[in-house]
## 1
Amino acid sequence: MSWTADPRVEQILARYPDKKSAVMPFLYMAMAEHGYLTDEAIREVSELVGMTSVQVSSIATFYSMYKRERVGSYLISVCTSVSCAILDAADVLHAIEDEAGVPAGETGDDGVFTVEHVECIGACGGAPAVQVNYELIEGVKEDKGRELVRWLRDAAPDTVLGDEMQALFGGQRSFEWGPAEGEGATGPVPALDALGTTGGSS
Ligand code: FES
């Protein structure tokens, strides 16, 4: 990626007294470019912030939302922390793994699905909670998890919308009065408006 031509670089650096503090937004920008963090991206970010590649790599591997390998068009994240576990999140995860043909932590050979289990995603009141490309669906049961996978495979939506998936595959929500869904997600990278990473590679 062309860091020198990107106006966000100076804007982000200006937010911090020490440029090392900009490492995480730069990693998100690099991931939006490639869909995952390449070795080259790690090296480029390390040069930008004045850290070693090993130091930057240690950050990129500590936080689970940074991906060091290519992920599928649809990243399905199933929360298996306590509130979700009590409400059978393990069964939901296994149903999704089985329907996608992809074990948790892996990406299918056809590049359609990556499945992962994650720690609490802040939707405990709507457990079990699932995300597709970081778009939230609450109250997902085993059968609906299977339907979700089939729908993604067959409909292959370019953009996934949390509200739409909630209506089709969700159940009990944490709050019924939340704001309406925005633009949705067009790729398996976190959509951070402030960094211009809405969308992203798939
Ligand atoms: S425990 Fe699953 S969202 Fe909090």
## 2
Amino acid sequence: MHFTSNNTIFGTQFRKEPETAGVPLVCDASSDFLSRPIDIKRYGVLYAGAQKNAGPAGVTIVIIRKDFLRTAKTEGVPTILSYATHTGTMFNTPPVFAVYMFNLVLDWLIARGGLDAMDKHNQEKAGILYDEIDRDGFYHGTAQNDSRSLMNVTFTLASEELEKEFLAGAKELRLSGLKGHRSVGGMRASIYNACPKESVQVLVDYMADFRKRKG
Ligand SMILES: Cc1ncc(COP(=O)(O)O)c(C=O)c1O
């Protein structure tokens, strides 16, 4: 069963894997890969574009179970698109710089205490932001509480006018990239692994100040 573990646009995340009665999971984990420990035994395939938590764009990590791979259809699948082509052989020229950077990110992750430590860090970061959103009705969190993402925190204000003001004020403090995806509007704070808690705190302080002035 295919699922996407974290939806960057809606700011939603599976807190744990869906129950599938033994059916292997196939997961697009692009936007929360390496943000927390997962039970990898449950996955037939997990794939993730590097560009969020793993390194520069241009490389995709694929973790695939060998016995699951053997069941994959190959007939009619273009050679370059078949995972079987890429196991054990180097079919095309790999983007070595992106692979090298990914390895450095893994060293950094291990030095910081690995996935458990990263999970704790991410929970703290998202926690202070959601606490601020939930303080009263001034900010509105758009995801259901039990599906809230620790990577992309989405929220709205009472009017588009107020949101514009919020974003302009944020920009002055060099808080950039807070505009929500064009398909949903509102605000989105993307707080991937590399984003420190101090940066989230700057945003939270700004939100508290904005509420005091406009609420
Ligand atoms: C879960 C997920 N899958 C896929 C993509 C798309 O990645 P790309 O821009 O490399 O196609 C994204 C990007 O936001 C994503 O979050």
